[in-house]
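[step 3/7] fold_predict: job queued, chain A
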Amino acid sequence: MAVRIAGINIPDNKRIEIALTYIYGIGASQSGKILDEIGIDKNIRTNKLSEDDVKKLRVEIESKYTLEGELKRQVMMNIKRLRENGSYRGTRHAKGLPVRGQRTKTNTRTVRGNKRMTMGSGKRKVEKT
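[step 4/7] structure written:
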């Protein structure tokens, strides 16, 4: 039986503490807190949960937490607000650069793309004959 919470199919063969992290908006520490509140063992596998436990989990998670589409929409609206304000963070988001003060002379390959600006840092190796 596939357990479905907040519109996400949770994997059957993983520990429930790990399986809950497949839901966008629930991390490892938060999944542990949820399971402690309900009183479900963290080490039990998802496929071993009873119907009653699944129901408790679903009610707890869907009622108390902002998850999935709604959370993603909220994040996008926050970024949109920063862009419209013309704030520093908003302009960094718009340009696709690091937002939180990281250095950009080096170490931003993931954000800026793999563009190399100097001749010495060449992309490919030259064959020697």
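[step 5/7] annotate
DSSP finds six helices and two strands in the chain.
The domain at 3-64 is CATH 1.10.8.50 (Helicase, Ruva Protein; domain 3).
exit 0
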